[in-house]
Design goal:
The protein contains 18 helices and 6 strands. The strands form 2 sheets. A 3-stranded antiparallel sheet has the order 1-2-3. Strands 4-5-6 form a 3-stranded antiparallel sheet. It is mostly helical and about 425 residues long. Strand 4 and strand 5 (about 70-75) form a beta hairpin. The protein is globular. Helix content is about 50%, strand content about 5%. The structure holds s-citryldethia Coenzyme A. S-citryldethia Coenzyme A binds near residues 51, 312 and 314. S-citryldethia Coenzyme A binds near residues 238, 271, 298 and 312.
């Protein structure tokens, strides 16, 4: 656990005729929080904060976001630098272990991951029991949870060796699990991992390869996926990470906590938005709508449409990941020689929205999901796999946060309070009198 925040000043709170002093802590980037851990004991009050928009759940040394300045750093390193110079496995190590690996550490980590990619053969029966149209996120969350049944020898979250084994197994096997979900949905044979490929190339082989022909990893696609996985790798206390931490705080094993995180990410307001974006762009194309027509629908209270891929709880200026992905869209499609009408629609929507008062007043900008699906679509990924690719990228971040949770000196099971608003006094009434 990195140095804890400094406690330099106090906040004064007056409740009725009572005044209490509460400590104010300051993080390494100058963010301040009022420590309310003594609030109920001293005042009898709790706080209320729907959606936790003003509430910190922990102190963390993993990822820093400045939503006003569009800053994102993993362990202090700017996302732009990692996107340009690093690779996904190296970034995974950085997030989980807190530092860039030296050559020996990276070699050991890469080899260990490479040799844990296979799944127990009984997983074939697991997938065979699922309907053909099973959503890959349902399959992946169930399969990750099931890993706990196949590997009962490494479930103790406080045993360093068992944690290391589980972490390597999960990072190694998730691409296999995700590709199996896809292959099951298209009725194609599952592809065993080929450890002659690198991590991302192996995923491509298992997704797009088949037993009838040789497979050559397209370097343009491999690099694009590696970049997208880096950009999705962590994002401080977002919904799915907070879910992973809350579930993990019960001391359940890693697989159980991550399975919960996968389900949270699936939601259309969170990681499921990347699938919603491409469906939105395709609907605009297929219905012959103009970008302006759709933007007006997204603004209207009478219409449930939202401009999916726009808006963010933290970024109120721009999402640095969206900028990098938008540039990658053009680079990848040019290199692949792919013309994407969906990209043209996305660019038009962005141009309209960024000049429209509704979006400007609410500080709504493209987020990580707005352009990512255009690349996934251009490389032949079905839209129902987009969020599974988000999960693959986010996996090291969830794991890093889970590891940090268990090393936190303030570790406690998460158990929020509530303000009760139901009937104050009630009694049971016999059914004949109801
Ligand atoms: C991710 O937290 C993270 O870090 C998440 C993430 C990560 O890496 O883990 O960055 C990944 O989840 C990105 C977000 C993907 N979701 C979407 O793109 C779905 C569309 N966007 C939203 O639904 C919304 O913007 C959220 C969920 C992202 C943020 O929700 P908030 O902060 O609770 O904001 P809100 O819903 O209260 O919206 C504020 C206002 C509302 O209007 P008013 O009530 O003030 O009139 O903005 C409007 C909303 O109606 N609004 C939108 C909009 N997003 C918000 N209107 C139209 N289109 C949108 N996309």
């Amino acid at each position: 656990m990195a140095d804890t925040a400094e406690m330099a000043e106090t906040a004064e709170l007056r409740v009725g005729d009572q005044t209490v002093q509460l400590p104010v802590i300051t993080g390494s980037e100058g963010e301040r929080a009022i420590d309310i851990s003594r609030l109920r004991a001293e005042t009898g009050c709790i706080t209320l904060d729907p959606g936790y928009a003003n509430t910190g759940s922990c102190q963390s040394a993993i990822t820093f976001i400045d939503g006003e300045k569009g800053i994102l750093r993993y362990r202090g390193i700017p996302i732009e630098e990692l996107a340009e110079k690093s690779n996904f496995l190296e970034v995974s190590y950085l997030l989980m272990y807190g530092n860039l690996p030296n050559a020996d550490q990276l070699d050991y980590f890469t080899n260990s991951i490479n040799h844990h990619t296979m799944l127990h053969e009984d997983f074939r029966k697991f997938y065979a029991s699922l309907p053909k149209d099973a959503h890959p996120m349902a399959a992946c969350s169930a399969a990750v949870g099931a890993l706990a049944t196949f590997y009962p020898d490494s479930l103790d979250p406080r045993d360093e060796h068992e944690v290391e084994v589980s972490v390597h197994r999960l990072i190694a096997k998730f691409p296999t699990l995700a590709s199996y979900a896809y292959k099951h949905s298209v009725g194609q044979p599952f592809m065993y991992p080929n450890n002659g490929f690198d991590y991302v190339g192996n995923f491509m082989w298992m997704m797009f390869g088949n037993p009838c022909e040789e497979y050559e990893v397209d370097e343009v696609v491999r690099k694009a996926l590696d970049l997208l996985f880096i950009l999705h790798a962590d994002h401080e206390q977002n919904c799915s990470t907070s879910t992973t931490r809350l579930v993990g705080s019960s001391m359940v094993n890693l697989f159980g906590a991550i399975s919960a995180g996968i389900n949270s990410l699936w939601g259309p307001l969170h990681g499921g938005a990347n699938q919603q974006v491409i469906d939105m762009l395709a609907a605009i194309r297929d219905e012959g709508m103009t970008g302006r027509q759709f933007v007006e629908r997204a603004k209207s209270n009478d219409d449930t449409s939202r401009l999916m891929g726009f808006g963010h709880r933290v970024y109120k200026n721009f999402d640095p990941r969206a900028r990098i992905i938008k540039k990658a869209c053009f680079d990848v499609l040019n290199q692949l020689g792919v013309h994407s009408p969906l990209l043209e629609i996305a660019v038009e929507l962005e141009e309209i929205a960024l000049k429209d008062d509704y979006f400007v007043e609410r500080k709504l900008y493209p987020n990580v999901d707005f352009y990512s699906g255009v690349i996934y679509n251009a490389i032949g990924t079905p839209s129902n796999m987009f969020t599974a690719l988000f999960a693959l990228g986010r996996l090291p971040g969830w794991i890093a946060q889970w590891i940090e949770l268990h090393s936190d000196p303030d570790f406690r099971i998460g158990r929020p309070r509530q303000i009760y608003t139901g009937p104050t006094q009630n009694a049971w009434i016999p059914v004949e009198e109801r």
